[in-house]
Every structure is written in C-alpha cells, then in structure tokens.
# Entry
Amino acid sequence: MSHLNYNHLYYFWMTYKRGSVTAAAEALFLTPQTVTGQIKLLEQRFSGELFIRRGPKITPTELGHLVYRYADRMFSLSYEMLDIVNYSQQEKLLFEVGVADALSKRLASRILLSAVPPDGNIRLRCVESTHDLLLSQLAEHKLDMILSDCGLDHAQQNGVLSKKLGESSIAFFANEPLPTLDFPACLEQRSLLLPSRTSALGRKLSTWFDGLGLNVSVLGEFDDAALMKAFGAYTDGIFVAPAIYTEEILANPNTRLIGIAKELTEEYHLLFAERMIQHPSVQQLCNSDFSSLFSGQR
# Structure
C-alpha cells in the first residue's frame, strides 16, 4: 500500500473548509490550478471523486465527507501539538486574541489587561474584526481566544468553549441642544448613530425600536464602536454606549445623557478552543470575577 501524500490531503481539507478552490488557493498562497491538480491526485489515490464540480461551485461527495472528517481530526491535532510545543519552548508566551469591533474598546482593554501578568511572561497580540471572521480564524488556529459580543452556537462550532463575562445596559447620548421629547420618544427627533446590524447589539436595537413602535432615522451604522462615539462628539446625532461609561462620556461638557434602556445590554463573551483551556491567560480570564467592572465600580 502506497503512502498518503499529506500535502494533497491538506489542500483538500482547506478547500472543503473554505468552500471553494479559489478561497483555498488564496489562503494557501497558491494558484487555483495548483490546488485543483493536487486534489485530483488525491482523488486518484482514493480511486473516487471528493467533490462534484459544477462550474465554480463544488459539492463534497460522500467520500469527500468521510475523508474530511478524518482529515479535520488529523490537522486539528497537529495544530494542537504545535501550540503545546511552542508554549513549552517560548520564554514569553504569545497570547493572540481577536476582539469584535462592535465592542467598547475601553472595556475590552481592561478585561484583557487582567490576563497579562506583571512579570511580563505573556505577550499580548490583539486583532480586530467582525465576530464571524474572528470565529473563522479561531477555527483555523490563527487565534487563541476571542472577546466578542456574541455567545457560542454549539451547533456550528465543535471543540470551542465559551464563557460570559458580564454585560452592561445601554445608554443614549446627544450633544446640546437636546431633543424636546422625553426618552425614548425623543429618539425620533434626531438621527441616530448605531452599531452595525451585523452586530448583536445592532440587532437588539432594531428589535427594540420595532417593539416600541419608534420610527427612527439612522444617520450611520458603525462596525467600530470607537468611531461611532467619535462621530457622536461632532454631530447632533444620538449615539449609544455602555451605561457604565456614562461619567466618562459626560466629561465632554456639551454631551448629555438622554436615557438608559436597561432591557438592552451589550454582552461580553470569551470564546476559545478546547485545547487552550490550560493556557494561563485563558485560565486567568475564566477564573476572574468582573462583576465590579461591569457595575462601574472600577
């Protein structure tokens, strides 16, 4: 029996995960023709088709599903092995964290700083993107952990664990002169600056407006919470932020709090691969009590 070419298997695995030859080729820094050729060699080795090709679209065959299940276990274990070896050999542990761009940066930084010990043995690297893109990078072992406004869909992510750290009510702010109606009716008097509807909070706000029968006008939607607040400082639009930062935001002498929606919350969740459970920073975050932070006491 001839040996299996694991490069061929890896190209197949990446194509299956990415959903297309083009996407896999981009991730592998290869041409689509090269990836297709390697998969064809693997199909010859298995004496069967792994994908059904209809133009640019590919659909895994039963054999493809079977091979993928084994390949996924193999390459997941290989990444886990590399992580463990790297942790044991590095003088300073690298802790790579993805932060959802919809989250408050101030609150995220205070959470993550608690995972960095004062002895400097852990070096933090943060990347910012959408929840879905970060989750994809976590699955590909490009990140150790995610801090997000979304929890975990266990039906979609096997081998990923999550922990809810806390939540904050949502406050609405505006610059003077203020709307004349009471909250929340006053939200119809000004254009709003809101989190993107692709974020958990953006979807909650949309549902909340509909439930109250509010016909609001949206000036802008933002993936980045800090950019949304910056726009709020220089326009007459109403913007939102976690209520625990009310005192800080009101330091701007022209900004006023117009209302708090206690039924609306921005949540903070940790998501990490099961293999990372022994990482000292993950353990520190999972074992920490952030109740005073989310109550605004520190």
Summary: The chain has a mean pLDDT of 86.
